[in-house]
Design a protein that fits this description.
Elements lengths: L5 H10 L7 H11 L3 H18 L1 H16 L2 H49 L3 H5 L3 H43 L1 H8 L3 H35 L2 H9 L3 H55 L3 H42 L21 E8 L36 E3 L5 E3 L38 E8 L4 E5 L6 H7 L8 E6 L2 E2 L5 H7 E4 L10 H6 L7 H10 L3 H6 L17 H15 L3 E5 L7 H15 L3 E5 L3 H6 L2 E6 L2 E6 L1 H7 L2 H10 L9
Parallel strand pairs: 5-10, 5-11, 8-9, 9-10
Antiparallel strand pairs: 1-4, 1-6, 2-3, 6-7, 11-12
Helix pairs in contact: 1-9, 3-5, 3-7, 4-5, 4-12, 5-7, 7-8, 7-9, 7-12, 8-11, 9-11, 9-12, 11-12, 16-18
């Protein structure tokens, strides 16, 4: 470093920790301005007009001093005075129009970016949202998009305006006196070094500011929603959370102060440089007046032009800094837009029509932890995409899904589906070897944890399949794969013989209805929450769906009926009321395939009995997959699928599985029989 020349050091310093401002990035930014090219052209016209008008007043001063006053020309004096009034008025009006154009362009771009981001995030898989904090997403949609908008509506406009102003001012100054013009530009190198040094620092601070703001937003989102606030109060952590927020907000404050001070010192340095340049020009100009007959009016005009030269020069160097930091916002936005979508429509995907509801899982493997997929926003703080990752087990590569580990780690062939009908318990489907439960009913641990491993089964149209198994067996994962919230790591899932990946996502959503374990309601009316399933539903349809869910009488008893606000996440309703509302919502949707994840777990005995009777009517004409924790559901099932550690270990009817004496029989004794003994007697 000591051997570097001054210019080499400047170039080295400039390239440290700078974003990749490539032509491709600039072209992509320009692409968002393409719909506004007409307004951009008009705005360029206003910039030229404002610059031209701003160059006139110093010439008026020169004419006043050198012509009107020495000649005592009153008419010229009046004309110059009117010009000095008219030019600022005209300049101001053009400036208002320019502001309108820049604002409309900037707000249009921010609208386009926000819509593109929101649409892209809406189509990300569930895996993405389980790996990303909501506060970080809010920061991308707000802070980063606003920063990108400022780059276009403010920084870019200032850059062009100041560039035109500098060129125009230098041209007029050269026409007045070339010697003073050269003296004025000799100090230009003094503007370059501060701009380069400050640019590097501000880029780093801007990135840190975005990161710290995102962390603060994430904490606010986690603790200021109803669930977070309830948790904080129940555990008495109000003081701790306040302290934690103060720490994050303090870091945001400190970096804001640092950013402001750096900018202030930067402008102080530029002001001193401008003062030196003005003093040099005045001294040389005064000497020329005394010795070579340069007019006083020319010196006065030059003094005005110096302000118009050094001001735009200062802003121009700062605009370069702002433009570089603004590109950080664009990069962060583009990096989110470039995140790959895990679950998408295949080219040529067709909408499902005339669905009968035959569901089939064919050797399905799935893991939530796939190192080959990039999820979340952890990578987008970097300038370039990271390289591919390897497995945590030493990078040995991914175990083939067609092989499983036995007790000793040896590979075994995957089980084949030997039949779709309901028959004897499927400890080995089709006679193929499969991991056997140990004496306690548990499947031996696999080398790598698969949420589902070689699952194969079929549910015929109109059948009720009950998913049974201990916690973590993979029941919820099965229900998540059916509507393509995730895609299988291997194997395939079909409806009526059509691979789910060959069907459009919209048609899948139209034919599959799901009641999840955690009911989510919008902070809106009961009517609005119901209409989310079918926006064009009539009042009669709403009432019929609520009667099926045993909810209409409760809603009718409320002072505002269907217009009652349910509150944040439905917290103004009880757990059973929320779940009945979720059931009514899916009944209103009227899907061909119904998925229930512990749909009656929050209901009291009376409501559960009524709901169960209603669900029996609803499920009678639909293919239904139900995560069963109730004896009545298990007894009503056409087929019971018993899962353990991601494997299908048993399959059959209630009587067949009890007779087999396996895992289901033990679950029945510990989980189902104590619930309702009487119906079995």
């Amino acid at each position: 470093m000591q051997d570097m020349g001054w210019w080499s050091y400047v170039k080295y310093d400039e390239q440290q920790d700078r974003p990749a401002i490539s032509g491709q990035l600039l072209r992509r930014v320009a692409g968002y301005g393409r719909p506004y090219l007409g307004r951009v052209a008009l705005m360029l016209g206003t910039i030229l007009a404002i610059t031209g008008l701003s160059l006139v007043p110093p010439l008026l001063y020169r004419a006043l001093i050198d012509l009107a006053l020495p000649a005592r020309d009153l008419a010229l004096l009046n004309l110059l005075a009117l010009g000095m009034i008219a030019i600022p008025i005209l300049n101001g009006l053009v400036g208002v129009y320019q502001r309108y154009l820049s604002a409309s362009i900037g707000e249009g771009i921010i609208f386009d970016l926000r819509c593109a981001l929101f649409e892209h995030l809406q189509r990300m898989s569930l895996r993405f949202f389980t790996h990303t904090k909501t506060g970080e997403l809010m920061a991308r949609l707000n802070n980063d998009v606003v920063g990108a908008q400022q780059a276009v509506s403010s920084t870019a406009v200032a850059l062009v305006s100041n560039l035109v102003a500098v060129v125009g001012t230098l041209a007029v100054m050269l026409s007045l006196d070339w010697r003073l013009t050269i003296a004025s530009v000799l100090i230009l190198p003094l503007f370059i070094l501060p701009a380069r040094r400050v640019g590097r620092v501000l880029r780093r601070i801007t990135r840190d500011s975005f990161r710290l703001n995102a962390q603060m937003n994430a904490l606010m989102n986690e603790t200021l929603n109803v669930s977070g606030a309830l948790l904080v109060k129940l555990f008495g952590r109000t003081t701790d959370e306040t302290r934690r927020f103060a720490q994050r907000a303090g870091r945001v404050r400190d970096i804001g102060i640092r950013q402001a001070l750096i900018g202030r010192w930067f402008f102080l340095g530029l002001g001193l440089v401008s003062a030196v340049g003005t003093a040099v020009v005045f001294w040389i100009g005064g000497w020329l007046v005394l010795h070579e007959g340069l007019t006083v009016g020319t010196i006065v005009a030059f003094s005005a032009y110096l302000t118009q030269l050094y001001g735009p020069l200062s802003a121009l160097t700062n605009a370069r800094v702002e433009f570089a930091t603004s590109l950080v916002s664009f990069e962060r936005v583009f990096e989110v837009l470039d995140l790959p979508r895990e679950v998408t429509d295949r080219p040529g995907a067709a909408a499902l029509r005339d669905v009968r509801g035959r569901v089939r899982f064919e050797d399905v493997w799935f893991t939530y932890e796939d190192p080959q997929r990039q999820v979340g926003l952890t990578e987008v703080s970097r300038w370039h995409w990271p390289g591919s990752t390897t497995l945590a087990d030493g990078g040995a590569g991914r175990r083939s899904p067609t092989a499983r580990a036995d007790d000793d780690g040896a590979s075994l062939p995957a089980a084949a589906d030997g039949g779709d009908g309901v028959g004897a318990p499927a400890t080995a489907e089709g006679g193929a070897a499969q991991d056997q439960p140990d004496g306690n009913g548990a499947v031996p641990a696999m080398e790598r944890r698969w949420a589902l491993a070689g699952i194969s089964f079929a549910v015929e149209p109109g059948q009720l399949a009950a998913l049974v198994g201990p916690s973590g067996a993979g029941k919820t994962t099965v229900t998540y794969l059916l509507p393509r919230l995730y895609d299988p790591s291997d194997g395939r899932i079909t409806i009526d013989g059509h691979d789910l990946r060959d069907a459009t996502l919209d048609s899948l959503a139209a034919h599959i209805g799901m009641v999840t374990q955690e009911t989510y309601l919008f902070h809106d009316t009961i009517r609005t929450n119901l209409l989310y399933a079918k926006p064009d539903a009539s009042d009669a349809e709403l009432e019929a769906a609520c009667r099926v869910a045993n909810l209409h009488d409760f809603i009718a008893s409320l002072p505002e009926g269907y217009e009652t606000i349910v509150g944040e996440r439905g917290y103004r309703l009880s757990g059973g009321e929320k779940q009945r509302l979720a059931i009514a919502r899916v009944v209103l949707k009227d899907p061909c395939i119904l998925v229930l994840d512990e749909a009656t777990s929050h209901l009291d005995s009376e409501s559960e009995a009524l709901i169960q009777a209603a669900l029996e009517r609803v499920m009678r004409v639909r293919t239904s997959l139900v995560i069963a924790h109730r004896l009545s559901t298990v007894l009503a099932a056409d087929v019971i699928l018993v899962l353990d550690q991601g494997r299908l270990v048993e399959r059959g009817t209630h009587a067949e599985l009890l007779a087999h004496g396996g895992l289901y029989a033990r679950l029945f004794e510990t989980q189902f029989r104590p619930a309702k003994v009487a119906p079995l007697d």
